[in-house]
Task: structure prediction
Amino acid sequence: MPRLKLKDVEISYTLDDYTDPWTRAPWVLLHHSAVGSSRRWYAWVPALARHYRVLRYDVRGHGDSSWPAANGNFNLDTLVDDVTGVLDALDIKRVHFVGASGGGIVGLKFAHDHPARLRSLTLVASTPKLAESRIDLSRWGDLLDQHGVRGWLMADASARFGAANPKLTEWFAEEGARTPVAVAKAYTSYMASVDLTDLLPNIKTRTLILAADNDDITPLRVQELMRDRMPKATLKLYPGVGHNIKVLIPDTLSAEALAFMKKADELEELSEGMGEC
Result:
């Protein structure tokens, strides 16, 4: 995977483009969740990349991206700066942003701070306030210390996966285990402290919220909170699945997101056309 040098890290990224070569299709940015990598979007790419140019990157400290030795902490401003840094380096002006769980938290802040750079926002099992979780977040640090990243992920397997294929659960845990424990602790403990609730009314980007009804990590009440407080948000609820819906039902969700993004583009073109009249 190619890398971009930002201020204090190197970010590993992937571009997928199977659009017609004579077109200039818009961009989609897929932002992964905590303790994962851009590889977790593997099943979304075929559906999206035929219609959009797709950018994925590994969050700092995750996957193949580096982790700054001088400052091993996370904050939302830095994560948002990474988004703008990657887009600027690749000369991408605007994107449809798709964020899963913690990636959706970054997406909310990005939409608030840089609305002009968004075509739409899709939130997959995300939240403005992770502390509203129905599981005991205070256990996460000890679980990571005692059992490593893989053991931490498996400890909440029922909340994450429900009755998923065990091979999927195993792959997900092994992929997550590529993340160092120190990074996992820093990221999850920071995200548990974030509260973006007060920003929601000011996020006016067209937003699609994809939620699971068996999700104890980002429960339905926070999905409904976002829908009710964000002026242009709609909510789609999927029964019988847990928190990690992006890998549990990827074909269903990618199709839903694709339809939403196309509709957002159509509405934008219509609005621009009316403005020229």
